[in-house]
Amino acid sequence: MGEIFRRDVGIRNLIPIGHEIARAIEDPIRISILEILSEKSCSIVEIARELEKIGIRKSPNTIRHHVDVLKKAGLIELTRLEDVRGGVLKYYGSNTRVLHQNIPEDFEEKMEKAIEDVSEEIERIVQRIGERYGNEVMEMARNLKDCPHCSDEHFVEYVLVQIFNRAIARLSGKMSINRVDDVH
Q1: Where would I find the beta strands (DSSP E) of 85-148?
Q2: Which residue ranges form the domains of the chain, and what is each CATH number?
């Protein structure tokens, strides 16, 4: 009997995620709430109305629970307090955009040249980050380690991915990233 199939698989995706965030995004309702709050700040009642528009009916207490989980994970924030009769109305907004589209099977093949070009640019940027901020990156990586015997390399990689992630998030509202076709 001989081998029928073999494929070497390399890392193609990096997903920087902590336990709180993993727990927070495991529920599709929370993903919907993140999407709503990435567009505008809403109160619990407004979130309920927006969810109903997409066929999700939940009580305000259930929505409040989901909002609390998202807030604890650091994915949403309190944006406004409003004095109303009998209490205070809280508004929330998302500081996170979830991109949950499926990548086409031929993505790697069709985008190979772009991936290669960007990889070369990122390599230069990582070198620059090391030269300019190497001490800060290493300190942050060491602060993330739970175990003194673990390699720093994994944590440095996590810090670098977070730096790139935050930089891309800052660009996401600008035309340069959302409207690539404007360049032509």
Answers
A1: 87-94
A2: 19-94 (1.10.10.10), 107-175 (no CATH)
